[in-house]
Write a structure and sequence with these properties.
Layout lengths: L1 H5 L5 H14 L19 E6 L5 E5 L10
Length: 70
């Protein structure tokens, strides 16, 4: 439940803007998303770019935390 409570709330206008950007970028190549990765947790994987041959390139934000010892 902590992860859910830690998420950032967004309004309907933010959702509509995100959907508009998604529609505009659909099947576009080459393409580089325009957005801030600052809200992503460390270790999250996100799309960095799509090249002219539609190959996706991903990046990882920060470093993933070490797994807890058992």
């Amino acid at each position: 439940m902590r992860r859910l409570e830690a998420r950032h709330r967004r309004g309907a206008a933010d959702f509509a803007a995100a959907m508009g950007a998604l529609q505009a970028a659909h099947a576009a190549a080459p393409f580089s998303p325009q957005g801030d990765v600052g809200d992503l947790e460390d270790g999250a994987v996100y799309l960095e770019s799509i090249d002219a041959d539609h190959r996706r390139h991903y990046a990882r934000k920060g470093r993933a935390p070490a797994p807890a010892a058992a």
